[in-house]
């Protein structure tokens, strides 16, 4: 019933920018109550939380490897999540996933919990040197 769809990935050169988007739809799914996160996973690597945003969009959190380069944002009127990626590096190459909390109004950005989420199918970001 709940569908999470990411798009915007692609093949770019080092130093380039990309903006990933994620839309969430579903009957009775209140997007504005859900913590939203971006994850990424490269082959042979653990899945890494890239960024997190609270339901209202007033608080954001980033993994150390992307601080200062990536910006997470949301538009609750559009049920949309975004990840602006600037200064891309080859090390950013990964499949990027959007995830929405299944439970409303959590503190999972700061609690460290990444369970009970709806996941998108992923969008591939490849950065060449």
Helical run tally: 1
Question: What's the Cα radius of gyration?
Answer: 14 Å
Q: State the total count of DSSP E strands.
A: 11
Structural class of the helix and strand makeup? mainly beta
Order of helices and strands: EEEEEEEEEHEE
Give your account of this protein's structure.
The mean pLDDT is about 95. About 35% of the residues are buried. The chain is about 5% helix and about 45% strand. The chain has one helix at about 110, and strands at about 5, 10-15, 20-25, 35-40, 50-55, 60, 70-75, 80-85, 95-100, 115-120, 125-129. A hairpin with a 6-residue loop joins β5 (about 50-55) and β6. By secondary structure, the protein is mostly beta strands. Strands 2, 4, 5, 6, 9, 10 and 11 form a seven-stranded mixed β-sheet that branches. It has a four-stranded antiparallel β-sheet with strand order 1-3-8-7, with no helix packed on it.
Looking at this protein, list some descriptive labels:
mainly beta, 1 helix, globular, 129 residues, 3% helix
């Amino acid at each position: 019933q709940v569908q999470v769809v990411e798009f915007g990935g692609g093949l770019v050169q080092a130093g380039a920018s990309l903006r990933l988007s994620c839309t969430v739809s579903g009957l009775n799914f209140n997007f504005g109550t859900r913590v939203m996160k971006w994850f990424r996973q490269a082959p042979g690597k653990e899945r890494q939380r890239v960024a997190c945003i609270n339901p209202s969009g007033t608080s954001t959190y980033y993994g150390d490897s992307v601080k200062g380069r990536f910006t997470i944002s949301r538009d609750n009127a559009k049920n949309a999540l975004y990840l602006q990626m600037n200064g891309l590096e080859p090390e950013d190459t990964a499949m990027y996933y959007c995830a929405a909390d299944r439970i409303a109004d959590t503190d999972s950005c700061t609690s460290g919990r990444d369970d009970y989420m709806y996941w998108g199918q992923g969008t591939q970001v490849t950065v060449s040197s």
